[in-house]
Amino acid sequence: MRYCLRCGWEWSREEPPGFRDVCPQCQSYLHCCQNCSLWQGNRGICSSLTAAPTPNPAEHNFCEEFRFAFRAGRPQETDVGARESDARRRWEGLFKK
What gap in Å lies between CA 53 and CA 33, rounded to an integer? Predict the structure, then answer.
């Protein structure tokens, strides 16, 4: 399945997202390096030899080599709400006696 990397919303259309398409759930760009199958997240680089590097891999780009990545399941750790609530819980825990 194809999902928004940030929130896990499922892309159900056959065609890939356009250059400026955004997720209807979290408003993050779908046509970005981090949603591409060529993106090597563990190294923070694109595996394409011809694509120009982008300053922010989460922002939209105009790469013609973009291939929306297939993932086995919805992203869990990248859920923005969960990250924010977890960070807030840990921050507040620092000040409890």
Answer: 9
Beta bridge partners of 2: 11
CA distance 13 to 19: 15
Q: Supply the range of the domain harboring residue 66.
A: 1-97
CB atoms within 10 A of CB 73: 8
**Judging by DSSP bridges, how do beta strands 45-46 and 39-40 pair with one another?**
antiparallel
> What is the pLDDT averaged over residues 49-73?
88
Read off the pLDDT band of 22 (50, 70, 90): very high
Query: How many domains does the chain fold into?
Result: 1
Antiparallel, parallel or unpaired: β 2-3 and 39-40: unpaired
User: 43 vs 2, 58, 84, CA distance in Å?
Assistant: 21, 15, 24
